[in-house]
Specification:
The radius of gyration is 20 Å and the shape is globular. It has a 6-stranded mixed beta sheet, sandwiched between helices. It folds into 2 domains: 2-87 and 166-251, Rossmann fold, CATH 3.40.50.300; 89-147, no CATH class. It is α/β, with parallel strands linked by helices and 260 residues long. The chain has helices at 40-47, 70-75, 93-98, 109-114, 116-136, 152-164, 182-199, 210-216, 234-239, 241-248; strands at 2-11, 14-24, 29-33, 55-60, 63-64, 78-80, 170-174, 202-206, 220-224, 227-232. It has 10 helices and 10 strands. Residues 2-250 form the ABC transporter domain.
Length: 260
């Protein structure tokens, strides 16, 4: 589905992404792990059109999407979330979802005068869809709450809900578990699995919580110093000597159990 070929992103003399090559298979939940500074988020930003690559190529289903802006990729079904949720705090959770789909009739001034019936019909349909999404994510009780007043984990669920308001095909999740309590993280994980299995979403997940990665992701890709270091199951990644040295800590593989 997504093919990244020899991708580079340089900031002056710093090579944040340094020749990364990887494939994201359709229908997968792929984990992307690595130490801080490995280039994971920069890779996300380049693929999602937030940053232009220094060199290299990104294709989606064989189509070259290298350097396309986020709104163009949004139209192709490629979306991303951020480590810090970007909700519209003064709007309700329902309103945050309703505003996601583009090309709404009410966006044109002319239609606000002469297309009021159509606008009202669209808003009813969007409201119904938003309520369905909130129910799916088990946060329907927050529909009328201001988005800026809900918890960090609930904001992450709301970001996931935004992807459900359009025809998302692949979603890049950047540290969805950051600052989220275990109960809500399990709820987020449940939603990701359901979206993958029931609606065919493809996910790429940056996350430092290895329990979360192990539950959701196969394959797992490990990056270090801007390069892809290893790929496989989490068990294979943990057993890889290069990963142990670069990420998990030298000698971890051979560490003895401490008696209880």
């Amino acid at each position: 589905m997504i093919q990244v070929e020899n991708l580079h992103k340089h900031f002056g003399g710093f090579h944040a992404v340094d020749g990364a090559t990887l494939t994201i298979q359709p229908g997968s939940i792929t984990g992307l792990i690595g130490p801080n500074g490995a280039g994971k988020t920069t890779l996300f930003n380049v693929v999602a059109g937030v940053l232009e690559p220094t060199s290299g190529r990104v294709t989606m289903n064989g189509e070259d999407i290298t350097g396309l802006p986020p709104h163009a990729l949004f139209g192709k079904g490629l979306l991303r979330t951020f480590q810090i949720a970007h909700e519209f705090g003064s709007m309700t959770c329902r309103e945050n979802l309703m505003m996601v789909p583009g090309g709404q009739t009410g966006e044109a001034l002319w239609n606000t005068w002469f297309g009021r019936k159509r606008i009202a019909e669209e808003e009813r349909a969007l409201r119904a869809k938003a309520d369905e999404v909130l129910e799916f994510l088990t946060i329907s009780h927050l529909a009328d709450h201001k988005a800026g007043q809900v918890s960090g984990g609930q904001k992450k669920l709301l970001e996931l809900g935004r992807t459900m308001m359009v025809d998302a095909r692949i979603v890049f999740l950047d540290e969805v578990g950051a600052g989220v309590n275990r109960t809500l993280l399990n709820t987020i994980g449940d939603a990701i699995i359901r979206l993958n299995k029931e609606r065919g979403y493809t996910f790429v997940v940056i996350e430092h919580d290895m329990d979360f990665i192990e539950r959701l992701c196969d394959p797992v890709i490990c990056m270090a110093e801007g390069k892809v270091l290893a790929e496989g199951t989490l068990a294979e990644i943990k057993a890889n000597e290069h990963v142990i040295e670069a990420y998990l800590g030298t000698g971890l593989k051979h560490k003895k159990e401490v008696p209880a």
